[in-house]
Amino acid sequence: MNKLLQHFQTPFQTIPFNEVQVEDYLPALTQAMESARLAVAELVSSKQAPSFANTIETLDVLTDQIDFVANVFYNLHSAETNDSMQAIAEEFGRHLTEFYSDLYLNQLLFERIRSVYEAAGELELDDEARHLLESTFKSFTRNGALLNDEDKKTLRELDTELSRLSLQFGDNVLEELNSFELVIEDKADLEGLPDNVVAAAAEAAAERGKEGVWLFTLDAPSMQPFLKFADRRDLREQLMKAFSTVASRSNEHDNRGIVKDIAHLRYRRARLLGFESHAHFVLAERMARTPENVSTFLDELFEKAKDKAAGEVAELENIQHEFDGRRDLQRWDYAYFAEKHRKRVLDIDENALRPYFQLERCIEGMFTVANKLYGLAFERRMDIEVYHRDVHVYKVSNEADGSLVGILYADFFPRAGKRNGAWMTTYRSQCLRNGQDQRPHISIVCNFTPPSSGKPALLSFDEVNTLFHEFGHALHGLLSNCRYRQHSGVSVYRDFVELPSQVMECWLTERECLDLFAAHYESGEKLPAELVEKIQKSEKMNQGYAILRQISLGVLDLSWHTRSSDEVHDVEQFERDVTRKLEVLPHIAHSNLSCRFSHIFRGGYSAGYYGYKWAEVLAADAFEFFKEAGIFNREIAAKFREHILSKGGSVDPMVLYKRFRGREANMDALLRRAGLS
After folding, report:
1. 3-state DSSP call for residue 410?
2. How far apart, in whole angstroms, are the C-alpha atoms of residue 319 and residue 342?
3. Average pLDDT, stretch 566-588?
């Protein structure tokens, strides 16, 4: 039997990564699909009348092996890819798409599902089972089950092409990010950069065989400090322009045509299924419900933030004028002068904070927070295999009785085979199988500043925030307590999935939390009270601009997905037209955000990027509930675990939030936190 399909004789049945080779993936997928097809054939030929148990519950189990193989492949394709994986990715995706097209378009199978669905009123189902029945029926109808044969054929073709283009989009972005190098030969050009950044750049150059120089890339831990601290404005401009034109440089990795093709195919698919646009199709299964509601939400936020954003930019231009006599703040100047402004107003800069945020201490701190809130215990395991030496693995248990909660992988540093950004993902989902609670295997993947010059990894406050954010997602997966895999963990509406992650960030501005782990890596001195106060104040600085930036991304996403891309003749001009009123800094010529906007063209956030701000409203409102009772109040934490973290997508998210909070969320808490009210 294929290694990926065996019952692993490993601790907690974790994946034996060292034994899995690239050549195992396609055979494993083929074998898993053959087994599933046989099971489908047996189901549709059954003489038994369709029932919830023999049809709906059977379907929840039927694709377990397929989805497991796909999870392993795509997780590593993002975190530890290579030429061999990329070479089979298109074929792998095509087979997967074909299988699910066959499944959803199987008329005999759908008739069984419809029979159970139409008899729902006569069945004795609890809320979770009823929700599974409804979501299964919707999954089939939203994937073409009600179409005629000709339209089903068209849908198959659209889905196959979308799968191919999405993979190509992501590979192009990765190639472009990896290919750029800013090599600095003169040490004078490093003026303004902190010592740790300079040391990391020297090590990065040495790793690529370049001695006596300094290397900067488009990876966040390399690019962001350069834009924030480097005095050489022309080099900041070069770096920013390189990032802004990723995958839009008229070469073999140009995504402009792919972006238009993906948007057009999504539009055609939605119209085929009876929806006005892809956004209407997506939002029918979101808390926001309609594009009009999303637009109203973003417009309301824009009105609250626009004047503050304009004032923030004017203030930074005043500082720029003091430094060099200019008033022409550009995008490559924003982080640089924002940092100077923060240092002037608060007498604090990122480098004063880094020594207090050693990665290992931060990990211990987030584990302590989870322990104080949810009674979780974390144990580093050295007997569980990993896919890269940088990855750490933890066994997560309930402290009260020692019962297993799940397995957590943590992967923190950038490398060539790893895409940019930070994310949480799942290798094995929680669910009930054969009467046993199958506990989840979860991973968080980040790109943090690595150790350098004999110093440990010292994080910026933004990186600590990212760590807590992804850990919030991980808790959502780990604490799942659902019967069905289809609903477990983070299998929730996209505008709800960011609630657990964003609320986790809120603890970081509280002294009671920071005292748990923020200590100088050399002296052990706790983060001084005055620095904590300055962190709290700095969180309100430049929030107008930050909110406008998020709104702009949401508007661009929605604009791509409420029309056919046949209306778009030039990607850059289209972007400019739809986001112009949201811009408070000059446009960078030839920039194409869409061409690197992986969240919507490679990930699962199409017509859903607004969800970050939507969930931030929920998170701010939820954290005020915690603060009213004490940020480590176990009673409130138990309610959050019961109604939010454990339920996954088994209940409508608005119902879950009201069960936790006692009412719907409102925007007031977010506006207070951002200093906008």
Report:
1. strand
2. 11
3. 94
Catalytic residue, candidates 80, 463, 470, 539: 470
Task: Write the CA distances from 221 to 195, 217, 359, 540, integer angstroms.
Answer: 14, 9, 14, 23
Residues 372 and 484 in one domain: yes
Please choose, from the candidates 95, 85, 74, 168, the residue with its C-alpha nearest in 3D space to the C-alpha of residue 425.
Answer: 74
Could you tell me if 93 and 30 lie in one domain?
Answer: yes
Question: What distance in Å separates the CA atoms of residue 508 and residue 496, rounded to the nearest whole number?
Answer: 21
CA 616 to chain centre: 14
Residue 1: pLDDT above 80?
A: no
- Does residue 511 sit in the same domain as residue 630? yes
**Helices and strands in the chain, H and E counts:** 27, 9
**Judgement on whether residues 393 and 489 belong to the same structural domain of the protein:** yes
Please state whether the predicted TM-score (pTM) of the whole model is above 0.70.
Answer: yes
374 and 425 in a common domain? yes
- Give the residue numbers spanning the domain of 206: 180-232
Q: Is residue 197 part of a domain?
A: yes
Residue 4, classified by CB atoms within 10 Å of its CB into exposed (0-12), middle (13-18) or buried (19+), is: buried
DSSP lists the bridge partners of residue 394 as 380, 408
User: Whole-angstrom Cα distance, residue 229 to residue 157?
Assistant: 49
516, 655: one domain: yes
- pLDDT tens across 443-498, in order? 999 999 999 878 899 999 999 999 999 999 999 999 999 999 999 999 999 999 99
The pLDDT of residue 349 is 79
Quick one: pLDDT at residue 43?
97
- The rounded radius of gyration (Å) of the Cα atoms in the chain is 25
Which one-letter amino acid corresponds to residue 614?
W
Identify whether residues 467 and 532 lie together within a single domain.
yes
Q: Which of 259, 262, 277, 260 is nearest to 563 (CA)?
A: 277
pLDDT of 676: 87
**Can you read off the two tokens belonging to residue 277?**
């646009």
Q: Which amino acid is at 296?
A: T
Residue 14 gets the label, from left (phi > 0), alpha (psi -120 to 50) or beta, of: beta
Decide: 287 and 495 in contact? Cβ < 8 Å: yes
470 is a catalytic site residue: yes
- Give the model's pLDDT for residue 104: 97
Task: Classify strands 441-445 and 404-411 as parallel, antiparallel or unpaired.
Answer: parallel
